[in-house]
Write a structure and sequence with these properties.
Layout: H1 2-11, E1 14-25, E2 31-41, E3 50-56, H2 57-70, H3 92-109, H4 119-126, H5 131-138, H6 146-152, H7 161-171, E4 190-192, H8 200-218
Antiparallel strand pairs: 1-2, 1-4, 2-3
Length: about 220
């Protein structure tokens, strides 16, 4: 029965792209790059079939370590692009190579049925929570569930001020390595440094995701 279940999961489509790198500034001296993760799927493993979030390299490193620990070494995880001590925010080639490496990593991760059962992976891919909030939510130490955190991702309309404050409290994390709050209207100044060199299919999918998220938000 387990083999039949795994086979059914493997036949479902899970498409993931890493694109649109952007510079984020913490302050005058400190900056980093984050990337957009776009996901499109018909898999029953995912609460949302279309989603888009932004993550930075250090969060990918955390995800790999967490998945490895949670799988109790039963899975050999794919490698991440290596950390480069000479990585430059102004080097478009380095940024593109890292972005492609992060996509290859996720493409392999989402094809593994065992890893798809990990709540941390779903929160990483489909929520705005920081890594510390992801750990708390996956462990049941938050007032919201994994499904609620995922469903709130990408919402642009709220029923009340109380709902807005709840969403912001879920998105903000004072313990993270960045002081920003990942709410729908970011408070930090960001500069687009390069445009994604994706194929036309990616651009079309990006537009489709935005329209789907917008229409689903408007119906709430």
């Amino acid at each position: 029965m387990r083999e039949e279940s795994d086979s059914a999961v493997s036949q479902q489509i899970v498409s993931v792209w890493v694109r649109d790198p952007r510079i984020r500034k913490n302050d005058f001296w400190h900056a980093y790059i984050d990337y957009e993760i776009c996901l499109h799927t018909d898999s029953v493993c995912f609460t949302k079939k279309i989603s888009s979030v932004r993550r930075r390299y250090s969060e990918f490193v955390w995800l790999r370590q967490k998945l490895q620990a949670n799988s109790m070494l039963m899975v050999q995880l794919p490698a991440l692009p290596p950390k480069n001590p000479f990585f430059s925010l102004n080097n478009a080639q380095q940024i593109t190579e890292r972005m492609k490496g992060l996509q290859r990593f996720l493409e392999k991760i989402v094809q593994n049925p065992l890893l798809l059962s990990d709540s941390c992976l779903h929160l990483f891919l489909q929520s705005q929570l920081s890594v510390s909030k992801i750990q708390a939510c996956a462990a049941g130490r938050t007032h919201y569930s994994v499904a609620q955190a995922v469903k709130s991702c990408g919402l642009r309309r709220f029923h009340s001020e109380e709902d807005l404050q709840k969403d912001l409290s879920m998105s903000c994390d004072s313990d993270s390595d960045s002081s920003e709050c990942r709410d729908p209207e970011p408070r930090i100044k960001d500069l687009t440094i390069i445009k994604s060199q994706s194929a036309g299919l990616l651009d079309l999918m990006g537009s489709s995701q935005e329209e789907s998220l917008s229409s689903s938000s408007g119906s709430t």
